[in-house]
Amino acid sequence: MAIVQDFERANPGIKVSVTDLTWANGHEKVAIAFASGAAPDVVELGSDWIAQFATGGFLADLSADVAADSGQYDGWGMATWQDKVWARPWILGTRVLFVNRDLLRRAGYADGYLPTNWGQLSESAIAIKRLGRDIYGWGSNTAEKHRLYKKYLPFFWSGGAQVFTDDGRYCVVASAQAIDAMNFYKLLHDSCGYVADQRGIEDAFLDGKIGYIISGDWLLKRIANEKRTIDFVTTLIPGPAAGGFAFRGRSFLGGEFLAVNAVTKNREAASKLIAFLTSPENQLRFCKANRSANPSAKATQQDSYFANDFNLQTFVSQARLALHPPVDPDWVSIEAELERAVEEVVFGSAKPATALHDASVRISALKKK
Questions:
Q1: Binning pLDDT at 50, 70 and 90, where does residue 9 land?
Q2: In sequence order, what are the residues at sequence separation of 6 or more whose Cβ sits closer than 8 angstroms to the Cβ of residue 280?
Q3: CA pair distance 256, 30, nearest whole angstrom
Q4: Sheet strands side by side (includes 42-46)
Q5: What is the pLDDT of residue 112?
Q6: In whole angstroms, how far apart are CA 359 and each of 83, 84, 159, 160?
Q7: What is d(CA 93, CA 233) in angstroms, rounded to the nearest whole number?
Q8: Which is nearest to 277 in space by CA: 322, 265, 289, 263?
Q9: Residue 246: pLDDT band by 50, 70, 90 thresholds?
C-alpha cells in the first residue's frame, strides 16, 4: 500500500507490516489473534465488531486521543461503547440500489424512471422478469454469512422496525413493521429473484440479466476496472408508500475502523499510523484508488471528486439516510439470528411472523445471559 510506504518514509523509525483479511474470515481471525495474544498493534475492525472486542478488554480506549478532532469525522456512534471511544472511523460504507436502465426500458418504462416506493419496485421488477426466461427483476442473496441480513435490514428499517426498544431493554424484531418488511423481501425473491451469492448476483447484473440489485461502492470500482458498458444508474433504496407518498428508504451503515491493541508496546507509533491513514488527504487518496464513496473525514466528503460523480453522490445521500445496527457486544450472534430468520422464510417454509418471533425469543435469551 503506497500510503503505508509514505508513512514509513515520514517516520523512518517505524516499520509497518500489513496482513490482509477477507470479510468472510476477518472476524474469526481477529478473534483468534486477540485470544492467543498475537493481535497486531493496529487492527482494522468492521463497525459491528467494536463493542465485542472492547468488552473483551482487547482494545485501547482512544477517547482522549480523538477528542481534539472528533468533530471533523463522522461515524463515532459506531465506535462508542459505554461512553468510551474504542476506534477511529476510517472508511464508512452503505448500500444502494443498482438499476439496469435498458431492462426497464424494455419492460415498458420511460427513460429516467426510478422506483421510489416498494410498490413501484416490485411492480417494475416483476415486469422485467416477464421479459424472458433468463431475465430477472431482483438479485436475491443466498445464505451468505455477514451479508444476507444486510439485504433485509434496509427494508426492515425503512418500514420503521427496530431491533430493540429505544431503551435497549426489549427485542422487537417481530413487530408488525418487521413482518411487513419480510413479506416484501420474500415477494421480491419469489416473484422475480435470481438467487446467488453476492459475487454471483453482481456477475449476473453486469451481464444484463437482473434489473435491480442492492450493492456497495465496490461494484462501481469493478465496473470501471472491467470497462463494463452496461447502462446502469444508482438510486436510493425505496421506502414503503403511505398516505400517497413514499417514505424515504433506509440502508445499512457500517464501515472500517482502526483500533489499537490494548496491550501493545507501540502505542505512540500505532496512534501515529492511525492518524496518518485517516487524515483527510489520505482518505481522499484511498477513496480515489478504491472507488470508495463514504470517507469518514468531513473535509474529504466535500471534495469535487465526490460532488462531480452522480453515482458517488447517491452513496453520499444514502449514507445520510442509513442506520447502523445497535452497538452491542453480542451483535455477531444477533445478526446470525436475523440471518437465520431470513433463511427460514426465503429458503424454507416458515411464515415471517413465526420466524421473527422465534428470532426474538432467541435474541432475548441471548441478552439475558
A1: very high
A2: 72, 295, 297, 299, 300
A3: 14
A4: 42-46, 254-260, 88-93
A5: 92
A6: 29, 30, 18, 18
A7: 18
A8: 289
A9: low
Which amino acid is located at 272 in the chain? K
pLDDT tens-digit readout, 56-105: 999 999 999 999 888 999 999 999 999 999 999 999 999 999 999 999 99
Q: How many residues are recorded in the chain?
A: 369
Which pLDDT value is given to residue 108? 97
Residue 34 has pLDDT above 90, yes or no: no
d(CA 98, CA 256): 22
Domains and CATH numbers, the chain: 2-94+253-321 (3.40.190.10), 96-251+330-368 (3.40.190.10)
Are 291 and 218 contacting, i.e. CB atoms less than 8 angstroms apart? Answer: yes
Rounded CA-CA distance 67/105 in Å is: 52
| Total Cβ atoms within 10 A of residue 184 | 21
Mean pLDDT of 207-232: 96
Read off the amino acid at residue 79. Answer: A
Report the half-sphere exposure of 157 (CA within 13 A, side-chain side): 19
Please choose, from the candidates 132, 163, 169, 134, the residue with its C-alpha nearest in 3D space to the C-alpha of residue 149.
Answer: 163
pLDDT for position 50: 95
Q: At what angle do helices 148-158 and 176-192 cross, to 10 degrees?
A: 130
H-only helix segments in 11-145: 26-35, 50-55, 63-66, 76-79, 101-106, 118-129
Q: Nearest CA to 238 among 184, 275, 173?
A: 184
Spatial separation of the C-alpha atoms in residues 261 and 192, rounded to whole Å: 47
Mean pLDDT in residue range 303-328: 94
